[in-house]
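Much of what follows relies on a compact textual record of a protein's fold. Here is one such record, which you should read through line by line:
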Amino acid sequence: MDLNKSNIKLIFGLKLKQLRQSKNLSLSELAIKSRLSISYLNEIESGKKYPKSDKILALANCLHVPYDILVSVKLNKNLAPIGELLNSNILRQLPIDHYGIDINKLITLLANAPIQLNAIVSTIIEIARSSEMSKNIFSRTALRIYKEFNENYFQDIELKSDNFRKQNNLTNLSNIDYKILSELLINNFGYVINYKELNKHPELSQIRAVVKKDKITTIFINNSLSNSQLSFILGKEIAYNYLKITDRSYIYSSNLNSFEQLLNNLNTSYFSTSLIISKKQIINDFNEFIKLKNWDNKFLINLLSKYQVTPEMLFQRISNVAPKYFHINKFFFLRFNYHNNLNQFELSKELHLNTNQNPGGYHSQEHYCRRWISIGIIEELKEMINKKSKSDIFISGIQKSKFLNSNEQYLSISIAKRGNINTNLYSSVTLGFLIDSDLEKKVEFVNDTSIKIKEVNDTCENCELINCNERVAPPILLNIENNKNKVKTAIDKLLL
């Protein structure tokens, strides 16, 4: 069992407590027998202290067990699931400390729980081993929930971003582009920016940037990046330094190893975006946007040009301020990728605030409903690029998405673009606002009759929509569920 020092202390404490209780000894009785203080024994049992060998020997003699048995990390049947949990990636992927949960107390509670709860722990571990939870999905889900708890707004990062602006005389600038950010990174943090070396290595063609920490820090940039992508990366590097964050990946576009790295990535991404798009600016522009009498396809595209940002940066910034300053807090954010050479759509990011409906989740095998604007707008962009030679274009679209068998409708606004580094990759970002009486009062174009209404679902495999032209897979899972219900109904009739 490959355990770190903290986990070894926890396991030793659990074993000691279990052995003490099996001998019907209280802490005070064991303290007298071993000549160790009650407070010290309590710290050992709670996993805070690991005793030296002479004290372990004294405890082993008092409990009448061999020294080797006491120090072994092998647990008996009742505690074995706890050991498996400690040895798995699950606890490292969960933001336990960020929710104010003491890991030692959690493990103690589980150790004292009935055997049925340990069975549940074992089940979770097996699911994690056999599913995509083991591939950072657990951590990413935890991060999404963390963002949702905070309504996607982080006041401390906003303040630090504002302070950086003031300290560097950026407050009155309407546009902070990659040139300004480059100068800040070089002058404030001593970086060297290299735009040539990375592209000399064909195997690194899909990597956005690599940071080399040495006496002088060098960032190697992929020269295929757009100016807006470059700004975002430079802003993140400023954030890592200004926020003094060291637990990170030094390769952009690589998998992050823990929840802590994911959280640090969130904080630096948030800082970068808020630095480039100030809170005051986006509040003013979003207010103007929702006051439009009719939907305007060009409005958001013009904002991309104004700020020199990616669609995702713009939508993320809107999703930061909408709940806090406009009390529009019932929406989802989606990012879809389409791989042209694989003919495959992938939901790569999602966020839900106070919404019941889920447009799919992280399904790996099922086919997303093609009736979503998120997917339709990618198809539209592909057609436009095929007809024209120009590929560096953005298109925006809107639709009222009505969930099948539900009264809920979402005002779904989407922007699509083609990849700069990988031209076979298309992506769209979508904000879907729940249409209720409150939204109708705040967003004036919500009742624009030119906005199409479409019935949607999550995936084809779960959809009962008949004669759907966009369907790409039969409703297999729905049929299985329907057959189960028919069997249940027949059995209920039989037993009447």
